């Protein structure tokens, strides 16, 4: 099933149960394959959502999903450009409950692991780390070099949740959207957000 249909089929659905203690999220989409994961996350997250997309991510989104930037922006409450380092979310004083970087490119992983914050996406990640906030990154790259793995390990030791875009098959997926939703569901699980995106093991 084309990625465009996956998004359209879920456009009218809201499978998440809103929660009280986690209401403000930042969703960053970096320049890696797998942009549909970011789209579905934007659709399923409750609460207030801020979107940051890199220039490469915009190109990949249109190429992989057939969706233009303006359509993606409509899924968020606030939108900032990746070079907008003066945005409110660039400051630790801006209250945010969790940050997602999905998909997360290996370049972004490398910068974060070394404390480089030269874009809004990497600055948002740096702020989440220094403030002790939940940070979930979703790499899709495979295979991975020693440097890539060491960078991810460094982030994991700093408290980052490294959630690879690796769907399971025990929920017996029928179409591509089922595989995408499994990964998105696992992202929501990290914040204990209720959803019905996939059937749990032997449930």
Measured as a percent range, the helix fraction is 25-40%
The string of secondary-structure elements, in order, is HEHEHHEEHHEHEH
- Tell me about the biggest sheet? 6 strands, parallel
Count of domains: 1
| Oligomer description | single chain
Count the strands? 6
CATH superfamily: Flavin prenyltransferase-like
Class by helix and strand content? alpha/beta
Q: Give the mean pLDDT.
A: 92
State the helix count: 8
CATH architecture: 3-Layer(aba) Sandwich
Span of the ends, CA to CA: 26 Å
Description:
The two termini are 26 Å apart. The protein has a single domain (3-10, 22-189), classed as Flavin prenyltransferase-like (Rossmann fold, 3-Layer(aba) Sandwich). The protein has helices at 3-9, 35-44, 55-65, 69-73, 106-113, 120-131, 146-157, 176-189; strands at residues 24-29, 48-53, 78-81, 98-101, 134-137, 161-162. The chain has a 6-stranded parallel sheet with strand order 3-2-1-4-5-6, with helices on both faces. Mean pLDDT is 92; it is low at 12-20. The protein is globular and about 45 Å long. The longest helix has 14 residues, at 176-189. The chain contains 8 helices and 6 strands, in the order H-E-H-E-H-H-E-E-H-H-E-H-E-H. 42% of the residues are buried. The chain has 203 residues and is an alpha/beta fold. Helix 2 (35-44) crosses helix 8 and helix 5 (106-113) packs across helix 7 (146-157).
Supply database-style keywords.
alpha/beta; globular; 203 residues; 8 helices; six-stranded parallel sheet; Rossmann fold
